Structures are given as structure tokens and as C-alpha cells.
Amino acid sequence: MQAAASVEANIMARAFPSGAPVLRCSPLLLHLRHTFTISRSSEDVAQSVLLELDDGELTGLGECAPSGRYEESPALVTRQLLAADFRDVDLFEFDVALGRLGGEERGAMCALDVALHDLAGKRLGVPVYRLLGLDPGAAKETSFTVGIADIDTMVAKTKEAAHMPILKVKVGAGNEIETLEALRSVYRGRIRIDANEGWEPEQAVRLLDELARFDVEFCEQPVPAGAPERLRFVRERSKIPIMADESCRIPADIAPLAGCVDGIVIKLVKCGGMREAVAMTHIARALGMKIMIGCMIESSILATAGAHLTPLVDYADLDGPLLVTDDPYDGVVFDGAQMRLPDAAGLGVALRASA
To answer: Does domain 2-125 have CATH number 3.40.50.620?
Structure first.
């Protein structure tokens, strides 16, 4: 497979003396089933950074799907990971290991954090959900994303996903009313919308008022991030609940959003991995907010890490592996929309035999 071949051809590694771990970073190319368009960008191929953390006996797998929205790239994340010094680090001491990266290297933190959790689970012989004391039976259903396109194409994509009970429809490029009307003519399941910062506050209020008749469950990030009061303006005038995505990257972002939104979207690549994501769930719960675990275009490594956390949250949007044609890993199992967590040690992710 092309994705696996790219891994073999571009491995970069750093080893340390005295039995310290070996880090290997590789590019992982993921080809989308359909061109994926949101209000600010479009792509046919996504690139992740695959991290292998080798302690000499076992290997922990991590991944980062870096976003240019946060001024990160695969090359930058790889440099940050390989520059960190892990000599004399006990890999069970997650905070110490993650501290070797520096302060705000969130993409690199995500890859390392996920690999640390995978390795710890493998060392102890338990799944990550058990490490965290979570009930795998409480894993959530995922939504399935329909990207922006012409209306006929979006209707065709919706029909293709008719078996999925929850759709997330990307909006923010115009024709929102006509698009939702067309999709509702062929789909009766739950619909969520995501504007990806595509509207101004007054425009958002007007559009959400009209879109409410299509029974929209909630709207993600209707307006540009950076000013919670703009989200408050929309929320106070909208019948549709508002979720903060780009406005909520790290734990410190949550408190200023209290009263401005109904909930937050946590993504491992934004916040820095599973450890930070758990912290964010506790803060949001204390402030009475709903929580969704989301994803980028990513392989089953990162999506499975997110799935292990879904017993903690209200909603999930972890369809990255469903949107690509060549994910080289097996991990979380999708029973339609319902996610089934692997019961193997660590994340429970393994390279596919075909890869």
C-alpha cells in the first residue's frame, strides 16, 4: 500500500545511550475517498507523522495529524520529536517525558503522549481504557463527515452514508439553506453542522435561525476564534446549540468560554494528547459544558486513542479512518457508527497484514 511504502522509505530515528528509548518518525500518507473540503481548505491526501517509541522490548505507537491552522507541519513535528532528549527518563512518568519536548509543541506532544499510553498498556498487559479506569461499553457512536461540495455531490455522499445515524455536514461556503434542504430530503438521521470559522456573528445568527428547521443537533465553531464574546453573541440568539472547536485548543481556553458556548470539541492533536484531553474533560464538566472528542484526517492509531476516551464524553467525531482508502492499521472497530474498543494491550492497534 502506498501509505505503508511511504513509511518504509522515510524513517528518521534517534537513539540514546545506556538503554534509553529509540524514537522513529515516519510520514504516513492517507488518501481520501472524496476530496475533503471545509470553509478554509481542501485536500485529497493527508499526511500524518507516525511515531514508534521503542524501549528495547516493546514499541509504543503514536501519531500526529498536524494542522496548518495551528502553524504545525509534519516536518516541524518530526524535528521537535527527534530533538528531545529522553536519556534517564522513566517512560511511566508521562509528565517528565512530555516535559522534554518543551512547552507548546502540541502536535509533537500528541504523538509522544499516545505512544506513551500505548507502551504503558503493553508493558502492563492491559488496554488503555483499563489504564484510565474507563468502561469500554460506554464508547460512543461517531458521526460521519460530509465535506463541502456542490449540492448534487453532497447529496450523493449523504446517500452513500445513509447507514450512518449521525452526519456532520461541513458548511460555511454559501448555499447552506439549499444544501441542508437537499440533504434532509434523503436523510432522516441526526445532523450536526460545522462552519469552521466560516461566518461572521450576525451572519451566523441569521443562518442558524433558518437552519433550525432542519433539526440540527448543534453547530461547531460558527465564527472565527479569538473572541469568546462573539460566540456568546451567537449562542444567545440561536436555537441551535453552539460547540467551540478552533476556539478551544488547550485546557486554559475552556474557562473563558463558559457561558459563551454549550460545549467544546477536544482533539488530541490540538491539545497535546490523551493526558491533556482528560484534563479538559474534567474542566468542561465542572463548568457544565457538553464535550465531543473530534479528529483530523488520521489513521486508526490516533482515532483509536480518541475512542478510548469516549466513555468520558457526550459525543464523538472520530471518522478519520472511514474517510480514507489506505489506512494501514487496524484498531477501533466501527460497527456502523458504534465504536468497539480493542481489548488487546495498549491501544490495541496493529499493522494490517495487507500493509
So the answer is: no
